[in-house]
């Protein structure tokens, strides 16, 4: 068998192995055809809160000002913006790789060949003009243009550029997803701050009430109507409530600093209207259809673009097994004397060449690159499925939380009302000696705890609304 036939058969065998290895993985086909349930509940209303811009969704002017500041100065977000610039430049670099590369070259030098060599002997017997031999050493002057071009026969370079473009779009969606999370985190922290302000006010009111009760008990003690034990128990109750005040104050400082960090600035007071918290009502959130998550959620779109980029990387890596065709050309002037440098055509130099190169033996590096790209493609498919599933679960969880927290808040309101009345009744009974002081203490403690829990439940309502807005993909537009 001739050498040419051996090479041809080896190339054909290699191509067959490549095509056998390039079958689309079954899991990848499953990911590409991924579907979601038709609706989140019995309702199939397509109204979707995610389409509302955050400046419209959040009506508190202090909150919208904080979010606006964070979107300009948050360091993590600005780092992501620079990552987008890096990805954009990568697209430019890949775009230029499949276009001809043209450059200009100029050079000057001298060359001295040994006398008893073929070149040295020829130079010694060469006359440029009658009676004038080749100068020694020989100067060399060159000026010209050259071009190199790899013909993208198998779309390797184009697929590489398309993959870079998909990765660039993926970083953009990653930035959008970060904006969604940032808006949600600031809103949740802001509502937590309002809740802490109101809890602190309730504790201060209770300190005043309990202090008055403590003074009454001391007078009752002087009138020998109660013992020293009652005085000490009332005093302990006042001290315990005062200790709660400092714990809440510390939480307020930490929450303010958390917001300041998200805004990219050093600690300072957060402007807010704490009195508005008691009148806050969560907006109605419309979940729409699960299929809308594929368009509204930036993380799902990012995972989809990562999958597209991974598939293109596989195609680009596969093309490394195929022959590549390179063309090169050059045109310029070259001479050993400036006087002859621009003489045409005597000093004119040009070259044209073409190379066809195909890997045949020791292709381990090419195979490793291809297998790595293929594994990353399957990995991207799994990540795409996981992101869709996670988004759906988040929405379902928040829908349930909104309903359950609303019902809990209604019951908490009734509990607070009942306990507030119990405090008044217990105080009156105690003054008329028809109730024990322990009943008064327990009633006051329960009333304080219930009012604090009511505020926490209101905060959970507001946070559930914010998290639902985030889960639907709102906040980035």
What is the CATH topology of the largest domain?
Answer: Outer membrane efflux proteins (OEP)
CATH architecture of the largest domain: Up-down Bundle
Mean pLDDT value: 87
**What's the story with the biggest beta sheet?**
4 strands, antiparallel
Show the helix and strand layout.
Layout: H1 3-21, H2 26-32, H3 54-57, H4 61-73, H5 75-97, E1 101-111, H6 118-124, E2 127-129, E3 132-133, E4 138-151, H7 156-222, H8 228-262, H9 293-296, H10 298-318, E5 324-335, E6 348-357, H11 364-431, H12 437-471
Antiparallel strand pairs: 1-4, 2-3, 4-5, 5-6
Provide a descriptive summary of the structure in words:
The chain has twelve helices and six strands. With 477 residues, it is an alpha+beta fold. It has helices at residues 3-21, 26-32, 54-57, 61-73, 75-97, 118-124, 156-222, 228-262, 293-296, 298-318, 364-431, 437-471, and strands at 101-111, 127-129, 132-133, 138-151, 324-335, 348-357. Helix 2 (26-32) crosses helix 11 (364-431). The model is unreliable at 3-22 (pLDDT under 50). Helices cover 64% and strands 11% of the residues. It folds into two domains: 22-98 and 153-321 and 361-471, Outer membrane efflux proteins (OEP), CATH 1.20.1600; 100-151 and 324-357, Outer membrane efflux proteins (OEP).
Keywords:
477 residues, alpha+beta, Outer membrane efflux proteins (OEP), 12 helices, 6 strands, 11% strand, disordered N terminus
